[in-house]
Amino acid sequence: MTAHSEDFIRLANEARSRIREIPPQQAKELIENGALLLDVREKDEFDQHHLPEAKHLSRGVLENEAHHGVPYKY
Known about the structure:
The protein is mostly helical. The protein contains 4 helices and 2 strands.
């Protein structure tokens, strides 16, 4: 297991505090009703495995590219 720096842990915890997690069944229902599922992992990780409904958009370009084809941003 990789040990992370205190700064990394602080930043990760701050980000986690702004993320709303939902159960898999709710995610499935949202997708079935038209929600867009973005997989923000690196391309090689996405290529290895991803959910069939997922669209790939690497985290590193998310802010710059999300406006293309994402009509509603919550």
